[in-house]
Amino acid sequence: MKKTLLFILLTCATLTANAYAPYFDIKAKMVGGGIIKHSKHLENTVKNPVLGAELSIEFLPQGKYTWESYYKFPIIGLGLLGMDLGNPKIFGQAFAVYPYALIPIVRKEHFYFHFKVGMGLAVLTKTWEHCATNEGVNSPNANAAIGSHVNAFLPIGLNFDFPIAKGWGITSDLMFNHMSNGSIIQPNAGLNIINGFVGATYRPNWREYMMPWRDYVKPMPRTWDLELGAAGGYRELYYKDDRGYAIASFRATAYKQLTNVYRIGFGADVFYDGVFVKQGDLLGHLETQYKRYEIVNDNFSYKWRVGISLANEFVMGRITAGIHWGFYLLDPIKDAYPKGTNPRYADKVTGVEKRPWPFYIYDPDKEDGWNYFRLMLKCRIVDNLFASVAIKTHLQKAEFIEWGLGYTFKFKPKKSRTDMLFPLF
To answer: Higher confidence at residue 397 or residue 32?
Structure first.
């Protein structure tokens, strides 16, 4: 599965970079920052600052494709990042490779300001298995943040470049980086890092390169599309179980292209999650030691959830990325939690909790809740066929990573808006 994710990322990066070669920048940066202590475990294990270095290559735009004009000619890069995570005994070191985009906000002669976003893979040298596994997840000698060597790497932040002379310049980034495996292997609290980058940049062919000019731009057709997609994956529920479960999803989403870069979608989602087996503080045979849920029997219908979602996506050539927000219409395990999880909805006599439909107040650390999010990346392979990778979450808690395929049914535009000279929004 991880090899599939790497293949999708590198394929998309290669297809995009072909439009940019041979003009490029080389950057070398020092890295410093810290891990956010978002759990009790990290409060016990985070010790020193995160330090490291990054080497990257950035391919400069040449204006070969219409979508480059829509984004004011972004820069596509590939970064190699190495970091010491501040506690070598527990966390070790992290090494990441990731394609990214620099989307211009301000471009002046001696100052560039970009929004930076990417997605890649990180390899960590220490995992749960390398530390004390018999002292519990909150032990200062345990690594409950990382359950596997290979993890998803999600960077987002701001880039500042200061060209000086003859191709040389100063570069810096302010970034938020997330590393986790999406619950494929437990435990998986993940690491969130705030980093500052500073270094030097050099453009070998600075004499020849000129930034493309935005002449007339053909607008993106404001059409409706229908996407059908299916995805699957695997995840663990509890680190003591040493077993995994299959997951799957199916979706149908209608999209409306609102601008040259943005489209909105309205979809229906069906989720299958094999982790919802008999479990909890119950008597008899239990398939898991996990006690977050209280499911009294292994009913196949408990494994299905149905929801509707609002999709917000940005289109960049073959690549589409965005965030989907949805809420459940059908959730058989909505009330399948131990007594006391959400006492505001408890019966005064029996103590049984009955949450209202469809919205209610809840603590995401104790229950999944009524809504979900999807961070999705799609890459068009050929014609209307695309590959996808997505992370489904309940607020800040990752549920699983899924890999999929889909097909887009395109509807003909009513009329081309050729009267727009610079239709960027």
So the answer is: 32
Question: Please, which residues have CB within 8 angstroms of residue 112's CB and are 6 or more apart in sequence?
Answer: 104, 106, 159, 160, 161, 162, 163
Integer Cα distance of 85 and 186 in angstroms = 20
| Tens digit of each residue's pLDDT (9 = 90 or more) over 264-322 | 999 999 999 999 998 887 666 677 888 889 998 889 999 999 999 999 999 999 999 99
Contacts 24+ apart (CB under 8 A), 106-112: 107/72, 107/211, 109/163, 110/162, 110/163, 110/164, 111/160, 111/161, 111/162, 112/159, 112/160, 112/161, 112/162, 112/163
H or E segment to which residue 206 belongs: none
Q: CA 129: distance to chain centroid?
A: 25
Q: How far is CA 98 from the centre of its chain?
A: 12
14 Cβ partners below 8 Å, 6+ apart? none
Q: Is the pLDDT of residue 12 over 80?
A: no
Q: Are 235 and 1 in contact (CB under 8 A)?
A: no
Percentage with pLDDT > 90 across the chain: 76
